[in-house]
Every structure is written in C-alpha cells, then in structure tokens.
Amino acid sequence: MKIQILNEFIVLADKKNYSAAADFLYISQSSLSKHILNLEDELGFTIFDRNTRNIELTPYGHKLLEYSKAICDLYNGSILKIKDTIDNQNEIIRLSSIPVMPHYAITNEITNFKLNHPFAKFVITEHDSAELLNLLLTNQVDLAFMRIEDVKSAHIEYVPFVQDEMVVVLPDEHRYAKNTTIHISLLKDEEFLFLHENTSLYTICVNVCKAAGFAPNIVYTGHRIENILDLIEKGMGISLLMSKHVEYYHDTNVTIVNLHPKTTSVIGLCKVKNHELSINSQKFWNIVKAKHIK
Predict the structure, then answer these.
(1) In terms of domains, do 103 and 135 share one?
(2) Among 38, 260, 56, residue whose Cα is nearest residue 168
(3) Are residues 154 and 278 in the same domain?
C-alpha cells in the first residue's frame, strides 16, 4: 500500500466526488477510480458507498480514514524532520522573495552574508506574496522577503527590511509631468499599465483608485516592470509603481511624480513563529533584525 494512494483516499473522502478530487490531485478521474478500486481489492472490503450521487464512506471507510490520516501525518512529519536535519547539517538557507530582489537591495544582503559566511549555502526562489505565505506555512522555505501587508497569518512573524512609496509614472510630455505631486483623483480618466493581477502591487493600486472613487481603466497588465516603463515612455498610458522599482531603471525616459494621498509599502523578512531555523538561517534573520527600520 502506497502513501500516495492513502493521500488520494483522504482527498476523495473529503471531496465526496471523483471529479473534484481528481482536479485537486491533478490526476485523471479514471486513474483515481482505478487506485481506489485497487485499494479496496487489497483491503478486502468496500470503503465507499457509491449508491448516492456524492459518494459516502462505509463504516469500514470511516475507520480507514482515521488511520490513514494518522499514517500520512506521521510519514509527512518524519520526512520534514529528516529534511530539516539534513538542511541543518549542511547549513542550507532556504530563502524566497517577491520578484524585486535587486530593487530592494535584497541581493546585496544575500551576497554580503555569503562573503562573511562562505560555508553558507543558499537555495533561493522567487514567488508572489500569496505563494510565499503558503511556502512558509508548509515548511518549504525557512525565510521569505515579502510585503508585510500580505502577511495574513498569526503564525508568521517578520522584521521590516525596507519601506517604499507609491509614485505616479508618466510620459515626459504628459500634462501632469511638471507637477511635483498629483492627487489620485486627477487620474480617473487615465489609461493604466499595471503589474499582473496576481501580484500584491496590483491589488494595492486598484484599491488606491477605488478609495478615490473610481475604478482604474487598465489597458495592460504584465510581469515585467521594464515593459511597463517602455510602454509609458512611448505614450501608451501611465502607471502607479513603487518608487524603488522605477529608480532601479534610472536610464528610462519617464517622469516620476509623488502621489497624494501618500501610499507606502514595507518589505519584511518573514518566518514561521517558533520554527527552528538552521544555524545560518538564524544568523541571517538576526542580521536583518539588528538593522531593521524603526
């Protein structure tokens, strides 16, 4: 009996529907059905009542579910403990970040640490904030740089790393390009170029506009800031971006104007509360914490 089959059985017992369970597991419905039938053959008893529209557990199935959850929890826990032990021995720092590491000098922080701790081994990935939160909570990474506005779990703690401010980015010839500050309400008739809708910055921008009483006319979304800046330079619209995003591309021919009301965002280094880190991960956390913004 494979752990994978028990996991599939647990999901099917929860979903009570082959189609929903197969979608959740990213396998075909026919494969799931075959696995469950093989499991019943191996056990010698029926675990699902298939006489109703939504399948239900038989009394034997209920008992099996109880033990299956315990077995899978024990297996997954043992694997995580073994991986933690290996990572601790090898001093690996499993670090992830939102995809703006150079903009916020996160890469500098990593390389400086590596220079002072040459035996430290980094495994670094980039994800959007929603994914980062899940990676932390499922122990797939130890530390993550993310916007603290997206830290929506009581199990996560963070130290602020850097603060940024939202600005308006305009073509040089735009009618507001000579302003030092623009009130967001003046932009209600503009065409906006935003980062992709699955980014936290997209949500922040849309909410800023809605708070001013209008829904932004979004004509472009994408994952690359340089594409947005190039389109702005060519007069295809305007954008709301964080100041350090734009400053990083200092040779771009666009105009940056302060936004009113002021909107800020803080990038923090996050970890799961009470999670035991590897020695080097703890050192990295302590260094960032020692110089965090007040």
Answers:
(1) yes
(2) 260
(3) yes
Residue 275's domain spans which residues? 88-160+267-290
CA 19 to chain centre: 27
Please check the confidence at residue 172 and state whether its pLDDT lies above 80: yes
Residue with tokens 């826990």: 77
pLDDT of residue 87: 58
User: pLDDT-based confidence at 204, cuts 50/70/90?
Assistant: very high
What is the total residue count of the chain? 294
**How would residue 89 be classed by pLDDT, with cut points 50, 70 and 90?**
low
Same domain, 35 and 64: yes
Whichever domain contains 40, its CATH number is 1.10.10.10
User: 98 and 33, same structural domain?
Assistant: no
Contact 277, 177 (CB under 8 A): no
Give how many domains the chain has, as a whole number: 3
pLDDT digits (tens, 9 = 90+) for 31-75: 889 999 998 899 899 999 887 667 889 999 899 999 999 998 898
Q: Are residues 43 and 122 in the same domain?
A: no
- Tell whether 45 and 57 lie within a shared domain: yes
**pLDDT the model gives residue 210:** 96
At 245, which CATH number? 3.40.190.290
**Kind and range of the H or E run holding 257:** strand 254-260
For residue 87 the two structure tokens come to 């990572």
pLDDT category at 180 given cuts 50, 70, 90 is very high
Q: How confident is the model over 170-192, as a mean pLDDT? A: 95
Residues 6+ apart with CB under 8 A from 175: none
C-alpha distance from residue 83 to each of 27, 213, 283 (Å)? 27, 51, 20
Answer yes or no: do 137 and 108 share one domain: yes
- Two tokens at 247? 């400053």
Task: Spell out where 5-134 has E strands.
Answer: 48-49, 56-57, 92-97, 121-126
75 contact partners, CB below 8 Å, separation of at least 6: 3
Q: What is the pLDDT of residue 88?
A: 57
